[in-house]
Description:
With 285 residues, this protein is an alpha+beta fold. It has helices spanning 2-18, 184-235, 248-259, 267-284; strands at residues 28-34, 37-43, 47-49, 53-54, 61-63, 68-69, 79-80, 88-92, 101-104, 108-110, 118-120, 126-128, 134-136, 141-142, 151-152, 161-164, 173-176. Strand 1 and strand 2 form a beta hairpin.
Amino acid sequence: MAVILWVMGLSMLMQSCLCSVGQPDRGCLIWTPKGDDVCCEECSPGHRLVRKCGPSPKDLCTPCEHGKFTVDPQSYRCSSCTQCVGAQVFLQECTATSDTKCGCKEGLTCGDTRCSFCVMKCGKGQEPTKDRSCRPCPDGTFNDQIHQRCKPWNTKCPDQQIMVKGNAFTDSTCHNVSVYPSHNPKKTDETEKAWVLGISVIISAILTVIIIIILTTVARKNLQKSKETEYGNKKTPPLIIRPPTDEPTTLMTTAIECSFHEAQQEQGSSSESLDSKDSSDQLLA
């Protein structure tokens, strides 16, 4: 008897729970009794309402048709799935509980949270406009993010600090005077670089002139030496060696020619020349 009462109590408890929460395979997920009928408070995911109240919870909601979806558990109709067109690119398939997810081509970005259209992606130093284009940040503003609105520069610094002006990409910054006295050192560095460059050019020019002078001097000396060698060769007459003969005229001519040359022969040769001279004198007498 006690077992029967326990089973009956459990059955009633389960039935009371079903009055508030439906089964996953039913059309209506949560309903409440209303006389002999029940009224659906929330359809199962991917279902839409057919009618609010009726005798059976599963007949109150129906699944969305193919190509449609719903995220409203009390909606009477399902929405059509979005089609990715134009500059959009497909990212995720549409389901009964979620719409298609689209993205944008390279260089573009979504124009709204649903990415229903694409706009030009603005880089740093730019901001999007109402006509879906980009423009540079106006003077006094900056943008260091991708596709964001430009923000005003910082305009105040504490005492003993200086303001470093910002640009379209960075905000104005404050720096301590002792650490950052001024920007003049940068100009000094550029001046020093200019001086070094000028001195280098002058030194290079001087070295070039010196090398040209040295090469010219060497060339002149070589030319002069060549001319002197050629002139010396022309000035020294060649030595004429005649074969010996017994004719008096030939002997006399030979003796005269030999007298113009320095005595470079051996002692025996000198004696022969003197004898030849005596013989020629006797013949002339």
